[in-house]
């Protein structure tokens, strides 16, 4: 197999010129619903990814269920990206429904920007205008649906990290919260339990990829990051409709808007305000105007969220953000996500508690120096993880040094002596800035967040 990914990309596009979205199948059982999709790569490879939703009391509006075809199709469109990227065929034939020109613009942008990290890390330089074209093989148009929503109903996606904890805690008591989890794992479930929810109060989606995708990855087909949060967005609309929730409150912060690479790819593109705005327009125009999608924490930085989270000590033993250790429900203590979270909490959490969470002092591990240099901006490329801005990381380190004083472990000593003197220090107020404008929070949510900040 060719090692040069740009050559591989060009050759694959010649060999596999077309991918077909053949259709999907909805099966309605007593205990759950199951949806499978069918994608066909140049009549050589067929993919059948699946997701299912367990039917729970209060989470299955039968009237809405009759209107879900359009959102199921759109979930299929975003799921398609994971399979399309194996060979990046220039043409995608759409059989279930017809996409309008406006809809095609949305999907072309999501394919290009949502796969920005994939292209960057594979050293592929596609042409934005010619990356992919959509060919309609149907004149059938999916229509908007209406949902009988509850004004107090709020769907909150929970991944098990500190951000969704803050959203759950701040909104409890104000709304009827429905925790939403895709592929439940211990950290996400324990987070919900600690917040006072039982398993039957949680809206769960179980998603499975086609094993053939992993086989092609092993054979040397193209592979890399896909915009998972975009998939979650469409699933969220389906879940909110079935559970009669008017709002979908994400926990994406302002930090997600900063590119991972200067003037380049953003690992968190589908968590960014740009995607949020695009998705809100798409959902309103083509899915439903009854459900409002927004990020509750958008006015805040990761630094500020960590400050609030530090108040909720009951979650210290259960929250997890480490992707490496997710299956074992642990912090690996070696990856960018672990070090970033450790740095964010360091100014606000006692050393003994911090060490207890991560089972060691990450500041004492000199093997993490290269990762720290990526986080603080010494290296111009940030880690391809969901981490905060360079300014936030530097401020957290400076506040930690100020708080601890005296002899410092290896990484703090390195930062204090070699980096901090040359770093342009922004004031804490700049990094803690509460953004009054660049967000989509409905007024009642904005007031709750603002009151929380004023109480800090």
Q: Can you walk me through this structure?
A:
The chain has 2 domains: 291 residues, no CATH class; 111 residues, no CATH class. The protein is built from 18 helices and 11 strands. The longest helix has 16 residues. The radius of gyration is 22 Å and the shape is globular. The mean pLDDT is 91.
Quick recap of the structure?
This protein has two domains: 5-295, no CATH class; 321-431, no CATH class.
Note the main attributes of this structure.
18 helices; globular; eleven-stranded mixed beta sheet; 2 domains
What class would the helix/strand composition place it in?
alpha/beta
Shape: globular
Terminal CA distance? 57 Å
Task: Count up the helices.
Answer: 18
Strand element count: 11
What pattern of helices and strands is seen along the backbone?
HEEEEHHEHHEEHEHEHHEHEHHHHHHHH
Please give the structural blueprint:
Blueprint: H1 5-15, E1 18-28, E2 32-41, E3 45-47, E4 50-54, H2 62-65, H3 69-84, E5 91-94, H4 101-114, H5 116-121, E6 133-136, E7 150-157, H6 162-171, E8 176-182, H7 186-194, E9 203-208, H8 211-219, H9 228-242, E10 245-250, H10 273-286, E11 292-295, H11 302-309, H12 336-345, H13 351-358, H14 369-376, H15 390-404, H16 410-419, H17 428-431, H18 443-455
Parallel strand pairs: 1-5, 5-6, 7-8, 7-10, 8-9, 10-11
Antiparallel strand pairs: 1-2, 2-3, 2-4, 4-9
Helix pairs in contact: 3-9, 6-11, 12-15
